[in-house]
Structure formats: structure tokens, C-alpha cells
Design goal:
Distance between the termini: 34 Å
Low-confidence stretches: 1-25
Number of domains: 1
Helix content: 25-40%
CATH class: Alpha Beta
Order of helices and strands: HEEEHEHHEHEEHEH
Oligomer: single chain
């Protein structure tokens, strides 16, 4: 995990960078979701959770975007309609089995959950065996602006399905997706609640990532629950405190829980970093947060 550094960019500099991120029309390198887990996380832990699809409609879907169809995983109850929507944003490992399972967990609770393969234009991370190579060859080439547009497309897909109530919209994500959760809550003012799992909060601005959560506090109107571990070697506790202070200073309803002795990826049940008690407690906090903010 890369260590974070405080962004030195001013808000005007950040705003100036945004137009530089051009969403060039390009084909999708990933057009179908594979089975199982990403190669870089194998072998998976014996404690890996598998949620049944019984009672659900769950599987691969294609989400229309301006560049063509984007592959995603969607899970929802098999009967009924008007389901609240939750966007599930992947880690750096793509939409592999763990992320699909999280979607099914939400669906079991009555949600229309969808997770798009947000790296699909830049590369197939599921086949890369080394995490540094995933970061350098794929993740570093994914513009935030592209991700925001793709998540917007997922919301439109949910709305068009006739099964979802897109007025009840939540977003949650893990690691890379945790940072994206904060950004999307600032980007889409229709988001009602967010849940950011150990996503980095500060960083240097560049054309791909022109702003970070700490830079966007003014724009984060939806209440976001940050779920972080105080033993996370990649996200220093002082950056978490800095984000908390910024949220309080602006009177935001968002809050951060810092779990004692929890490492990075404490929710990832397929990895050695998993901490069962902490993960279960954080999940309960998230579901209660969504309900309290009208996403249920």
C-alpha cells in the first residue's frame, strides 16, 4: 500500500486540473467478468465468506456508457421493486468474487447493488499477479473523471431497470473504492449516504487524480461514514484526524470510526488482513448509517 502525502494543491489549482482530464473514447479491454478471485490475492483464506444467490437475481450485466457497454455485477431481490440503490466500488483487484459477494450481501437486505468494472478500459487486473504492477500499469491510468461518469452510468442503469428507486442512492467502496466513495459523494448531489472503507484521504494532485477527499470537503453534502483502522500502515492516523477536523469545521454530517488494532483491508475476508469482529461491527454500523439516512 502506498503511503499518503498531504496535497499541496490549492482549490483553484485543483479546479484548473479538472478540465485537463479528457474522457477519450476508447474500447473496453475487459468485456466480461471472470470467476473466482484476482490472481494477485491467491491463495484465498479458508475463512472467505460465500453468500448464496438464493432468492436473488444476481449476475453479470452490461451498463451503457458513451464508450459502449461496461461490464458490471448486479444483485437484487428476485421479487419486488423499488429497491434502494447501493453502488459498490471495487478495490484495486477489480470486480472479483469478494466484491460480487458484497453485492449479494446487500441484495439479501433488499438493495439493488451494482459494481462496475471501473478499470475495464485500462486493463484486466484480475490476471496480474503483482500488486505494484496493478498500481503502475492500470490503476495509475484511470482518471477520476472517468470513474465519476461510469458511476453515473450505473445509477442511470439502475433507474432504467424498473426495479430500483434511484432516489434512495448510497455508495460504498473499499481501499481504492473507499477514496472513490468520498469523491462520488462530492460529485453526485443525489447521493443520500456513503460508506468509505479505508480509502486514502490526502495525496498529490495530478491529471488523473486532480483532487482527494480532503480537498473536497466543501462539496461532500451526503453524510459519509468512514470506516478506518488505526493500525493501517498505508493511511496514517494523522490524515484521518485531519479529515475529521475538516468535516467538523465545515459542519458536515459525515463521521469517521477508527477501529483499534485494525489493519488495512480488515473487511477483506479472503485475505490475512481480515478481522472478523471488527468487520462485522463495521458492517452493522454501515447498514444502520444507510437506514438512518433514508437509504433502506
Amino acid at each position: 500500500m502506498l503511503h499518503e502525502s498531504q496535497s499541496s494543491a490549492t482549490q483553484s489549482e485543483i479546479d484548473a486540473l479538472v478540465p485537463l482530464v479528457k474522457l477519450n473514447r476508447r474500447g473496453f479491454m475487459v468485456t466480461s467478468l471472470g470467476a473466482g478471485f484476482a490472481a494477485s490475492v491467491l491463495p484465498v483464506s479458508a475463512q472467505t465468506i460465500t453468500t448464496s444467490a438464493d432468492g436473488l437475481v444476481a449476475g453479470e450485466v452490461k451498463v451503457p456508457t458513451k464508450d459502449g457497454d461496461m461490464v458490471a455485477y448486479r444483485a437484487m431481490p428476485a421479487t419486488g421493486s423499488g429497491f434502494p440503490v447501493v453502488l459498490v466500488v471495487q478495490e484495486i483487484f477489480g470486480v472479483h468474487e469478494h466484491i460480487k459477494d458484497v453485492c449479494r450481501r446487500f441484495a439479501k437486505l433488499g438493495y439493488f447493488a451494482i459494481s462496475a468494472e471501473l478499470f475495464a478500459r485500462q486493463g484486466d487486473v484480475s490476471k496480474i499477479t503483482e500488486i505494484p504492477k496493478i498500481l503502475s500499469d492500470v490503476v495509475s491510468k484511470v482518471p477520476d473523471a472517468q470513474v465519476m461518469a461510469d458511476l453515473d452510468a450505473c445509477v442511470a442503469f439502475a433507474k432504467a431497470s424498473g426495479k430500483a428507486n434511484a432516489d434512495k442512492l448510497a455508495v460504498t467502496g473499499f481501499c481504492w473504492g473507499g477514496r472513490i466513495t468520498w469523491l462520488y459523494a462530492a460529485h453526485n448531489q443525489n447521493v443520500k449516504a456513503g460508506g468509505a472503507w479505508y480509502g486514502r484521504l490526502v495525496g498529490a494532485a495530478n491529471a488523473m487524480t486532480p483532487a482527494h477527499p480532503i480537498d473536497l470537503v466543501d462539496r461532500i453534502n451526503a453524510p459519509v461514514l468512514g470506516l478506518y483502522g488505526d493500525a493501517d500502515g498505508g493511511i496514517p492516523n494523522d490524515t484521518v484526524a485531519k479529515m475529521e477536523d475538516a468535516l467538523k469545521a465545515k459542519g458536515k454530517k459525515s463521521k469517521i470510526i477508527l477501529y483499534p488494532d485494525a489493519p488495512h483491508a480488515f473487511h477483506a475476508d479472503y485475505r490475512p488482513s481480515y478481522r472478523k469482529a471488527t468487520a462485522e461491527a463495521a458492517w452493522k454500523e454501515l447498514i444502520a448509517w444507510f437506514k438512518a439516512n433514508g437509504v433502506a
